[in-house]
Design brief:
By secondary structure, the protein is of the alpha/beta class. Helix content is 29%, strand content 30%. The protein has helices at 11-25, 83-97, 100-103, 131-144, 189-203, 222-226, 239-251, 264-271, 304-310, 323-333, and strands spanning 35-37, 47-55, 58-65, 68-74, 106-113, 119-125, 147-152, 155-159, 163-170, 173-180, 210-214, 232-235, 257-260, 290-295, 315-320, 337-345, 355-362. Strand 14 (290-295), helix 9 (304-310) and strand 15 form a beta-alpha-beta unit. The longest helix is centred in the first third of the chain and has 15 residues, at 11-25.
Length: 366
């Protein structure tokens, strides 16, 4: 069978229903009417992963229905995947099935693509990979013009490189990003660019003020926003993301950004001069004039310490992947800040998930 989005032709109606449901969740907060940004109805997802199911001497891509987790569903087509992934899937499968060394005990295939045409495929095995596998994998990578990584227990073989190079067009300007296998990246590339553009417009020009960004990842928002601030101080706890962020700053010649590998709680202690951190020895925190903070937290939203920290700044840009925790956080942040703009980004069409963006300004005390 083919695993395609549900009723592609009805996408506008599906999106309208979802957007209304999310807006209703925030009805008690009297937010502005949200601006809704739709996705492309097909070929929007830059990442995909499938089990490789072996049957009668050949293998096929498979996914599993949560209602029947032990029954593989054959995937002949996957229309929500990027066009690059969609086109590569049958070609790669044919190559794998024609070569026993590449298909033997292969149980999972992961695709990571970009809007700019780069492609990385991870092949994951239940056996140790040898020189013969590496030779054939390199031949396959050259033939298909892709990057390949082979993985098995305690083993990672990289054919050329373990990242893709993305180029995003933000407000008619190109930005380059190394996106690593296993690192977090936004799966809907076009809406990611739209989100960044929206955030830039809300932030405005701040030639004499600075930006604080928590959960900066690989610099996805950081680099474009840095063009609108004097300096940027960013934090991230993932080692892979910090590595990618430093590389991406260099790729884009962004020289006004400092990224710290520390939690928001630790940063709060440093800013309040409650603790001295050796890793901050090269940074003069007193030199920052922060007027805006950007947060893009995981699904759990913000913790008490982070909410308290960001409430001390004049402007808050909050990007959320979970309307429920965003609603909880806004109930608290609304005591000190007013919501000036509200946006919904349909990163995951045909699902209940919705990405949100909120811009808050500190209330004027009378």
């Amino acid at each position: 069978m083919s695993l395609n989005p549900v009723d592609i032709t009805n996408y506008p109606a599906i999106l309208e229903k979802k957007a209304c449901a999310v807006a209703e969740l925030f009805s008690d907060l009297a937010l502005p009417t949200p601006t809704v940004f739709p996705s492309e109805p097909v070929h929007y997802r830059l990442r995909a992963e499938f089990r490789l199911w072996h049957d009668k001497g050949s293998a096929y891509y498979a996914m599993f229905d949560p209602a029947e987790p032990k029954v593989p569903v054959k995937v002949d087509q996957f229309a929500i995947a990027s066009k690059a992934i969609y086109d590569l899937m049958p070609v790669l499968l044919e190559k794998l099935n024609s070569q026993d060394t590449l298909s033997k005990r292969l149980f999972q295939v992961e695709f990571l693509s970009t809007l700019s045409g780069d492609m990385l495929v991870s092949l994951i095995y239940h056996r140790r990979l040898d020189e013969e596998w590496e030779l054939l994998a390199r031949e396959l990578a050259n033939n298909l013009k892709i990057q390949i990584i082979g993985r098995s227990k305690k083993q990672k073989l990289v054919i050329d490189r373990d990242y893709v190079l993305e180029e995003l067009q933000i407000d008619n300007k190109p930005y380059l990003y190394h996106q690593y296998e296993g690192g977090f990246t936004q799966p809907n590339g076009k809406l990611n660019a739209t989100m960044i553009s929206w955030a830039k417009a809300r932030a405005g020009e701040n030639a004499h003020a600075d930006l604080l960004e928590l959960y900066c990842g690989n610099g996805n928002f950081t680099i474009p926003l840095a063009t609108q601030f004097r300096k940027v101080l960013a934090t991230e706890i993932s080692k892979t993301s910090v590595k990618a962020a430093h590389e991406n700053f260099a790729l884009n010649e962004a020289t006004n950004i400092e990224v710290l590998r520390m939690s928001s709680e630790e940063l709060s202690s440093a800013l309040n001069k409650e603790r001295v951190f050796h890793r901050l020895r090269h940074i003069d925190l007193d030199s920052y004039n922060i007027n805006t903070v950007l947060v893009d937290p995981p699904r759990a939203g913000l913790d008490d310490n982070t909410r308290h920290l960001i409430s001390g700044f004049a402007n808050i840009l909050y990007i959320s992947c979970n309307p429920e925790t965003l609603h909880r956080d806004l109930q608290i942040l609304s005591q000190t800040h007013a919501v000036e703009a509200f946006a919904l980004f349909d990163q995951f069409p045909y699902t209940h998930h919705m990405e949100s963006g909120v811009f808050l300004k500190r209330r004027v005390k009378l």
